[in-house]
Amino acid sequence: AMPPERLADKPGSCGRPIRGVRLRIVDDEGRDLPPGATGEVLIAGPNVMLGYWNEPELTRETLRDGWLYTGDLGRVDDEGFLYLVGRKRDLIKCAGERISAVEIEEALLAHPGVLEASVTGAPHDVLGEIASAFVVRRDGTLSEADLRAWCAARLTHHKIPRAFTFLDELPKTASGKVQKHRLLGGA
Questions:
Q1: 143: helix, coil or strand?
Q2: Dihedral-angle region of residue 146 (phi above 0 means left; psi in -120 to 50 means alpha; beta otherwise)
Q3: CATH architecture of the domain covering 95-183
Q4: Which of 44, 92, 125, 184 has the maximal Cβ count within 10 Å?
Q5: Which sequence spans correspond to the domains of the chain?
Q6: Could you tell me the pLDDT band of residue 187, with boundaries at 50, 70 and 90?
């Protein structure tokens, strides 16, 4: 819960867990991370679901050792305020590094010539995955070189997309959510 009086000094935070709910931030091996470190958000408490109806395998994957593995990526500050930064499935695994697709998307969307952007991991024989950016331009003058230079000024080298594809529109669901699986030619 976010106390209204803390909104101004905790921008972007969801607040602290409500009474009775426990929260952990863990790495890929399930080890607790210190404040400020980003990892998967786990929650436990009396209000957390007991499982998925008629989905025992999904329940086993999601509920482990009394904790709900949310699939959300987040961090807590020194006061226990939670900040969500993305979804675990939106991480791109490139040459052993974990890259946030959301971070790259935010950098692209800050460019005045970009109307929409979505980033996903594309398979790569050597690196595992590479960041692949799909961009809707405001006009036709924006080039791949422009975006590479823009990203190079804002992102570390390994986060700069290796591929840029310009589209007229991003594939979306009826509710407006980008269908990332369709960007790389999926069904």
A1: coil
A2: alpha
A3: 2-Layer Sandwich (3.30)
A4: 92
A5: 4-88, 95-183
A6: very low
3-class DSSP assignment, residue 144 = helix
Q: Is residue 77 within 8 Å of 129, Cβ to Cβ?
A: no
List all residues 6 or more positions away from 127 whose beta carbon is below 8 Å from its beta carbon: 94, 95
Which homologous superfamily does the CATH classification assign to the domain defined by 4-88? Luciferase; Domain 3 (2.30.38.10)
Write b or e for each residue in 107-117: b if 16 or more Cβ atoms lie within 10 A of its Cβ, otherwise e: bbeebebbebb
Q: Which of 82, 95, 94 is nearest to 39 (CA)?
A: 82
Return the C-alpha torsion angle 136, 139, 143, 146, nearest 10.
-90
pLDDT of 88 higher than 80: no
Report d(CA 52, CA 1) in Å as an integer.
25
pLDDT tens-digit series, residues 9-32: 988 899 999 999 999 999 888 999
Q: What is the pTM of this model?
A: 0.62
* Rounded Cα gap, residues 54 and 2, in angstroms: 34
